[in-house]
Write a structure and sequence with these properties.
monooxygenase activity; single chain; 5-stranded parallel β-sheet; monooxygenase; 2 domains; globular; EC 1.14.13.-; alpha/beta; Flavin_mOase-like; FAD/NAD(P)-binding domain
């Protein structure tokens, strides 16, 4: 087996493989350390917007989270801890970026080319995640900009922002954490806002030593805390998926939160969304709005359109001088780059297949024409209000049952998702999507692909997703077996 990536998905897969008795596997990592998006995103203020005790594996609870919402450095340390405690490093090949994965229809395995060599695997688990490859808009004049340019996920810690004129592009989850952190030390900060976000207070605090000792010595208290946090979000999700009208009360709370910090009616008008709360991800911050009211901050209610020398120009014509441009413009989510490197049974890449039909899979895991290939956090597995670790663990259950089914079938065998099963699953998902806030809320979000189809979010509860991925249904797959000729050839090569 080959697992790609060492974020939550990849490390979780490695733990579950070892627990299932599978030891002949490798984890391929393009960087020189584990952590995935929590390694790559180290920008000022980087933190999680999911409560700490819900943002951990159920099989590896952490009683020592220092805050109710953890910072990047604590989450990365947790992932390092998981890699060490479960002795996963012996399986990891660092600096091994996957260049190409090609299905060998004769041998029923994957031929894999990496930056550190070649290998083959009976089964591939792709855990690269949707937040791994930054998206930077191709703007006119950007190549001739004389200053510094970088994405939030590739923060340049060697560049000193003190006294600089900084343009921040985007108002997503990263930007609202970055802006309050850098505002006090930059000379001038110009924020380019294409769409204002809904921002709620961040109820964050330090977890006391007494609480941590309690969790350490009485583990069931950690499980109770996690269960409470999970239960609240399971109830809340109904408003997102079935009754978006119920979100009106929360919108009024969000507006009051803004009014307390932003007294200027003109600025408040710029910052007020014109779409339903929840249509885009709800953001949490106590410092974002206050930072925007400071004398050295300008909010441009328009997207960045072009760059003219050291001048950044918005779509509405607003111009500002800049020494540095920081892009908080998200990631390649609906066009994951790994798909361009996966070649299926018909010789086409997964990207080519999805270009025709849109990004889709069976139960968020399997794609038709790509046998024995599973993805963690695949199409329509994202969550709008809860912890992705819950989805990841559900998909790991599916992975383990997938392997169990292969073992029960015996011999060299592969499972290929039937096109009809993939189509049926996605029709059900998209039908449920129609009444959700992500479809009816009146916004354009990164959840949508180029055709306006939501290929990112799961339109239900995590309980429903866990039920749907509890086991592999063999009638949804075509069983492929090695030909007699291929078997004889393989035995001859093994003997030689």
């Amino acid at each position: 087996m080959a697992v790609v990536g060492t974020g939550f998905g990849g490390l979780g897969a490695a733990v579950r493989l070892r627990r299932a008795g599978v030891t002949d596997f490798v984890v391929l990592e393009r960087a020189d350390s584990v952590g995935g998006t929590w390694r790559d995103n180290s920008y000022p203020g980087c933190a999680c917007d999911v409560p700490s005790h819900l943002y951990a594996f159920s099989f590896a609870p952490n009683p020592d989270w220092p805050r109710t919402f953890s910072g990047q450095e604590h989450i990365r340390a947790y992932l390092d801890h998981v890699a060490d405690v479960f002795r996963l490093r012996r399986h990891i090949r660092f600096n091994s970026e996957v260049k190409r994965m090609t299905w060998n229809s004769e041998r029923l395995w994957w031929d894999i080319e990496t930056s550190s060599g070649r290998l083959c695997a009976d089964v591939v688990v792709s855990a690269t995640g949707p937040l791994s490859d930054p998206r930077i808009p191709d703007l006119p004049g950007i190549d001739s900009f004389p200053g510094k340019v970088f994405h939030s996920a590739r923060w340049d810690h060697d560049y000193d922002l003190r006294g600089k004129r900084v343009a921040v592009v985007g108002t997503g989850a990263s930007a609202i954490q970055i802006v309050p952190e850098i505002q006090p030390r930059v000379g001038r900060l110009t924020l380019f806002q294409r769409t204002p976000p809904w921002v709620m207070p961040r109820v964050d605090r330090a977890i006391s030593g007494i609480e941590r000792r309690l969790h350490r010595h009485l583990p069931f208290t950690t499980r109770l805390r996690r269960g409470f946090l999970w239960g609240v979000r399971e109830v809340q999700v109904q408003a997102f998926t079935r009754h978006p009208g119920e979100l009106g009360l929360v919108e009024r709370m969000a507006k009051r939160n803004m009014a307390r910090a932003v007294k200027d009616p003109a600025l408040r008008a710029k910052l007020t969304p014109d779409y339903r709360l929840g249509c885009k991800r709800i953001l949490l911050s106590n410092t974002y709005y206050p930072a925007l009211t400071r004398p050295n901050v300008d909010v441009v209610a328009s997207s960045l359109a072009e760059i003219d020398g050291s001048t950044v120009v918005a779509a509405d014509g607003t111009r500002a001088e800049a020494d540095a441009i920081v892009f908080g413009t998200g990631f390649h989510v609906t066009d994951m780059p790994i798909a361009e490197r996966v070649v299926g049974a018909d010789g086409r890449t997964l990207a080519d297949t999805w270009a025709e039909s849109g990004m889709r899979s069976l139960r968020g895991a399997s794609a038709a024409g790509f046998p024995n290939w599973l993805t963690i956090i695949g199409p329509n597995t994202g969550l709008g209000n809860s912890s992705m670790i819950l989805v990841i663990e559900s998909q790991l259950n599916y992975m383990v049952d997938f392997l169990r089914q292969l073992g029960a079938l015996g011999g060299r065998v592969a499972l290929d998702a039937r096109p009809a099963a993939v189509t049926a699953w996605n029709l059900r998902v998209q039908e449920r999507m129609k009444r959700t806030v992500w479809s009816t809320g009146g916004c354009t979000s990164w959840y949508l692909d180029a055709s306006g189809r939501n290929t990112t979010i799961w339109p239900g509860t995590t309980t429903e997703f866990r039920s749907a991925t509890r086991r592999v249904h063999l009638d949804e797959y075509e069983v492929l077996r090695e030909t007699t000729k291929a078997t004889e050839t393989r035995k001859t090569e093994a003997g030689a």
